Amino acid sequence: QVQLVESGGGLVQAEGSLRLSCAASGRTFSIYSMGWFRQAPGAERAFVARITWRGGTTNYADSVKGRFTISRDNAKNTVYLQMNSLKPGDTAVYYCAAKRSLSTNYQRAQSYDSWGQGTQVTVSS
Asked: If 0-12 CB within 10 Å is exposed, 13-18 middle and 19+ buried, where does residue 57 land?
């Protein structure tokens, strides 16, 4: 199994920045891609960004493209989400996830096999 631990959430003002971290352990050799999802109160869990572990290919939701950057440090088994120009609409619990399959849709939460506990991000207006 893969274990994931997120950190870095907090309270920031609009236009501020945060960097989230996700440390992976266990069967990390089985990971094809790592993704970030978020869930706001009353909303479904939504795709934010993903990166392939080996090749470093990145993809972003339209709502965060140009503001968020996903990156990885393979030696540390860690992925990051740099969030700039934050908006109140970014307020959510952010989850890190790992996907083993290369053939499933990376935008769907159901495609991922392992999840972290989540970290709260609150952006004040």
From this structure: exposed
